[in-house]
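Supplementary Methods. Inverse-folding protocol.

Structures were first reduced to a discrete structure-token string of length 307. This string, shown here, constituted the complete conditioning input.
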């Protein structure tokens, strides 16, 4: 596995760690791609912390983690995390989709149930994609993908109607809402979910929180903890930082399934999301389409682990 982090480094400080010709200058920031195995990588975290503390400025702003795998790693993986790269607006709620907020966690707002069909502005769904997601995490898939699920007898998904905003009698023939039936897979150590890329001082102090969470009749141990984590254990934090590990005995063998816990935050239209995973069987279906030159557009995959 190769892990590359893309950073937007403040040009004022870039020379502290990078050669003048390194990366790509984009005005006042520099786009840097760096492997997490680069010896300078931990230095980035230290600079971020020390500049913040001393002059209240960051070393870098935005960041994005990408992982790539060799063929053997892909063929041997039993499950994959599904990443949806195609985001669109407006969200369902802005188009008449309703949620029952009383069904959400009172502490973190995770898990509100959608109580109507999904209403969207159908014209705004990216046309050339097979999978796309709203900023609220509502996932739509193309008819082509639904047909593929039927053809290969892929288990674990339901495809629900998507309707045009302000037009309840309409029903898209091209798009369907993806509903994942199984939501029991438990994210576990050593998965890292927290607000920042590096475990800064702020997060460190918060790891004093209890690390053992009682959920039902068992004790769940997760780390590291941070301020975005819900005390009930349903919301694990803001950002996924590492690959994901799931408890093996919480996986029921479906071809597509989601985590029990949520990642993200509840803010405005944004809702915490369950992570979605696929089986090796479904990955092979997607891979065979790609090899035929018929790539499933809008998604990528990352290896996940059953432990
Ligand atoms: Zn909660």
């Amino acid at each position: 596995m190769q892990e590359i982090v893309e950073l937007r480094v403040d040009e004022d400080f870039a020379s502290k760690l990078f050669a003048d010709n390194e990366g790509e200058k984009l005005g006042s920031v520099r786009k840097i791609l760096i492997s997490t195995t680069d010896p300078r990588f931990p230095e980035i975290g230290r600079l971020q912390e020390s500049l913040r503390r001393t002059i209240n400025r960051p070393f870098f702003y935005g960041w994005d983690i990408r992982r790539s795998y060799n063929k053997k790693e892909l063929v041997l993986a039993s499950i994959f995390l599904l990443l949806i790269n195609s985001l669109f607006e407006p969200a369902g709620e802005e188009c008449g989709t309703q949620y029952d907020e009383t069904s959400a966690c009172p502490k973190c707002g995770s898990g509100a149930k959608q109580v109507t069909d999904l209403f969207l502005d159908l014209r705004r769904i990216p046309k050339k994609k097979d999978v796309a997601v709203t900023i609220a995490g509502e996932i739509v898939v193309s008819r082509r993908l639904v047909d593929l699920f039927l053809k290969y007898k892929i288990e674990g998904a339901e495809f629900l109607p998507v309707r045009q905003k302000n037009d309840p009698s309409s029903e898209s023939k091209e798009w369907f809402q993806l509903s994942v039936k199984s939501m029991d897979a438990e994210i576990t150590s050593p998965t890292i979910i927290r607000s920042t890329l590096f475990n800064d001082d702020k997060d460190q102090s918060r790891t004093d929180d209890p690390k053992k969470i009682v959920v039902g009749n068992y004790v769940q141990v997760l780390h590291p903890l941070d301020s975005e984590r819900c005390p009930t254990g349903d919301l694990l934090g803001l950002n996924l930082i590492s690959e994901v590990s799931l408890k093996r005995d919480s996986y029921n063998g479906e071809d597509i399934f989601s985590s029990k816990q949520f990642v993200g935050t509840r803010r405005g239209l944004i809702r915490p999301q369950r992570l979605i995973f696929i089986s090796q069987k479904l990955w092979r279906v997607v891979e065979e389409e790609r090899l035929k030159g018929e790539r499933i557009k809008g998604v990528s995959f990352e290896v996940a682990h059953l432990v």
